[in-house]
């Protein structure tokens, strides 16, 4: 018979965090990361900053590996209550944004090679041409 999954409200997760415990929510799952603090490759400070919070966006921004996602499973203690759940939409780094036009995207790919080519041309003229 499968065991029942514990359900936590976001307020409960916040209250679980004190000087001795670090809980957080990632993808609507609740994790007790207290025992993982010293093992976290990014340092414990990163986890402490997100303690008691919904940290999906921050977790995904780092592009965690498949191995990291596997490690998480052993720290899962439950699910977030339906009324506190949020839907995470992964942002595509190539998506259009109001502050970045297609022209600026094209220029970001065009300008660096152009600058390198110009530097090589100047260096060639200066040092190799008589």
Structure, briefly:
This protein has 130 residues and is of the alpha+beta class. It is built from five helices and four strands.
Can you describe what's shown?
The protein has 5 helices and 4 strands, in the order E-H-E-E-H-H-H-E-H. It has helices spanning 10-16, 44-49, 56-61, 66-72, 102-127; strands at residues 7-8, 23-26, 29-32, 76-80. A 4-stranded mixed beta sheet has the order 1-4-3-2. The protein is elongated, with a radius of gyration of 23 Å. The N and C termini lie far apart (86 Å).
Characteristic key phrases:
12% strand, alpha+beta, 4 strands, 130 residues
Secondary structure: number of strands: 4
Average pLDDT, rounded to a whole number, is 83
Give the oligomeric state of the chains in this entry, treating copies of one chain as homo and distinct chains as hetero.
Answer: single chain
Low-pLDDT segments, ≥5 res: 96-103
Structural class: alpha+beta
Task: Report the order of strands and helices.
Answer: EHEEHHHEH
Tally the helices: 5
Please tell me what the overall shape is: elongated
In whole angstroms, how far apart are the ends?
86 Å
What's the alpha carbon Rg, rounded to whole Å? Answer: 23 Å
Largest sheet: 4 strands, mixed
């Amino acid at each position: 018979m499968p065991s029942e999954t514990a359900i936590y409200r976001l307020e409960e997760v916040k209250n679980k965090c004190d000087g001795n415990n670090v809980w957080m929510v990632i993808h609507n799952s609740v994790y007790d990361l207290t025992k993982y603090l010293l093992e976290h490759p990014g340092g414990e400070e990163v986890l402490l900053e997100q303690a008691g919070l919904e940290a999906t966006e921050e977790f995904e921004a780092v592009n965690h590996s498949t191995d990291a996602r596997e490690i998480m499973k052993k720290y899962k203690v439950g699910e977030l209550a339906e009324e506190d759940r949020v839907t995470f939409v992964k942002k595509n780094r190539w998506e259009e944004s109001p502050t970045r036009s297609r022209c600026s995207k094209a220029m970001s790919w065009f300008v660096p090679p152009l600058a390198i080519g110009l530097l090589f041309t100047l260096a060639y003229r200066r040092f190799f041409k008589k």
